[in-house]
Amino acid sequence: MINIFQVAYKNLLRKKARSGLTIIGIALAAWVLVSLLGFNRGYESSLNKDIDNLGFQMLVTAKGCPYEAATLMLKGGTGLRYMKQEIADSVASQPEVEQITPMLMQAVFDPNKGESGGITAYLGVDPATFPKMKSFLEFKQGGWFSDPNALEAVMGYEAAELEQREAGDLLLIPTKNVELKVVGVLKRTGTQDDGTIFLPLKAVQKIFGIKDELTGIGVKVKKEADIAQFEERMYRLPDVQVVSLTQVKQTIMTLVSTAKVMVFSIALIAILIAVVGVINTILMSVMERIQEIGILKSMGATAWDIFKLIWLETLILCLTGGLIGTAMAMATAKLTEILVRQLLPYAPSGGLVQINLVLVLFTFGVVTLIGLISGIYPSWKAGRVRPLDAIRSQVE
Amino acid sequence: MMGANDHLAIEAYHLMKLFRLGSEEIAAVNDVTLSVKEGEFIAFIGPSGSGKTTLINILGCLDNPSSGQLVLGGRSIFDQGKTLSEAKLTRIRREIFGYIFQKFYLIPTLTVLENVVLPFTFYRKPGAESEVGEVLRRLGIDHRQGHLPGEISGGEMQRVAIARALVNRPKILLADEPTGNLDTKRSEEIGQILKELNQKEGLTIVLVTHNPSLANRAHRVIELRDGRIYQGEEPCDPKAGCS
User: Fold this and answer.
1) Average pLDDT for residues A150-163, to the nearest whole number?
2) Which of A101, A196, A213, B196 supports an S-S bond with A82, CB 3.0-4.6 Å?
């Protein structure tokens, strides 16, 4: 015997090309939706991880654009602003501060990097305080600097891979003609540290001729401290601004949200196109089968029976499309990530496209909803067909 | 062998069906009064446009008359413009009637067996399922049950359509030009099947056909012209009793 589901399924096999194209339309919409949601999820979690792994909760920088400060904090900027080193002492003297670490970022264009050259960032850090704040950093080879003034470098995992350096090798700073000795290579952290070359602060100041100036001060605040009050006091210091982690997250997420709205608009358009495609397919199928639907009604099918049958056909199309689209999104997640990284070079490190079960189920829910909604009109129209319509068209 | 008894399966009184064509009103069915006994086999004949199909549609509750009265098995269905609800008409259609048409309307992606049992998807008379094999055998298509409609002949397709109309054990079989798409040999076979269903099963059959050979298998042949029943060269007078 045969049930209504089998009848609906076999009806869709009649016009295989049309059903197939509709399924592809839905699959593409589902693919876009899963990938975008996965990207959104991955981007946020990677960004949070990057920020949390900074090791300090606040960054004091020279006054300027907060976005630039946020970029500097995460990736190392090129349009750097400087502040006097004595500011570090006044920050350290604040009662809320547990520890500070002064930093000086310098960026140099290296014509030998990549195909058309690239920027290499050198971060001058204080050997006495920076390793303590970043206690989670582990070494693959070697260790921190032997002396606060030494011309030595500790390389992040990816920086060492890119430059093909190991502990004990020499490293030349382009344009400065200064050779550094690589004393340590860090293990992979999945953060921006992987691409950084760390030098002693004093060595950077000396090599680049920047005396008593810094680009940032990392601040670790005491657990019981009133951060809001501390920030308020810091704002009163001349020529500096305080960027807290919360601010950084908010600043970047504001930028990300703007892009997200646009991206979700595209996803919405893809879904709407899919809905229109489904309605069109099912409606055409209903129109072609008016006589047959009339005959089904003469056999005793009620309007609701016909509604169910056509609705089921729509659901089968949508769920099959959803299944294929989700599978495609999962299979191409890595490829999507590579593509996104090409387009967004400053994207956070770690998995950028993260697809999980909740996301898959959510997409299935959306696709099912598409099926249910887009099936209503054609199903209602089919349910209204009278047996006589079949007979009349036969007479014609 | 079974035959017609005195219980009436269909009673129709002064049925009219009017269509408006521009400013003109055309009577497709014009004051038709007739009755069909249970187990009777009647055939409507007549030229194209004589109202045969419109009449059989009204008798089979597929269309409403403009006026007149229709009674099925003693139950009033239409009475001077008053009719039953669509839900009640659906129930009557599936409980009383089986329909076969000139085009077979088989679903091409379903097998012969699946097409035959398709009505069970919507409605199943108790015990009907166990008789499917017998229906297929009686119509000589049991060896074709796994085939798709595209793989069988036109005559076999119409047998499948007949089997589909019979699986829910209807009381009345309505057949509108069932041999219209078939050659002479296949038409004769279908005619023989209908005759046997009437004689052996006692099935009431109302047939519309252009085929005199098929019509001659019926107990009674009724000629329609311009929506009226004719007796010889004269239209029959319902008041005088012409059915």
Assistant:
1) 91
2) A213
Q: Looking at the predicted complex, does its ipTM rise above 0.90?
A: no
Check A305 against B118: CB less than 8 A apart: no
pTM (two decimals): 0.68
pLDDT digits (tens, 9 = 90+) for A267-326: 888 888 888 888 988 899 888 888 888 888 888 888 999 999 999 999 999 999 999 999
Q: Which of B60, B109, B123 sits opposite A300 (nearest CB)?
A: B123
Amino acid at B86: E
B118 contacts A2? CB cut-off 8 A: yes
Name the residue among A13, A302, A391 with its Cβ closest to that of B109: A13
Tell me which chain B residues have a C-beta less than 8 angstroms from the C-beta of A297: 90, 93
B62 versus A242: which is more confidently predicted?
Answer: B62
Q: Which CATH architecture has domain B39-62+83-240?
A: 3-Layer(aba) Sandwich (3.40)
Structure tokens at A121: 């960032």
| B219 neighbors B41 (Cβ within 8 angstroms) | yes
Distance CA A249, CA A263 (A): 20
User: What is the Rg, in whole angstroms, of the alpha carbon atoms belonging to chain A?
Assistant: 31
Contact A59, A251 (CB under 8 A): no
Domain boundaries, chain A: 4-49+252-395, 64-238
Chain B touched by A302 (CB under 8 Å): yes
Q: Among all chains, which residue has been given the structure tokens 């290296």?
A: A110
List chain B domain ranges. Answer: 39-62+83-240
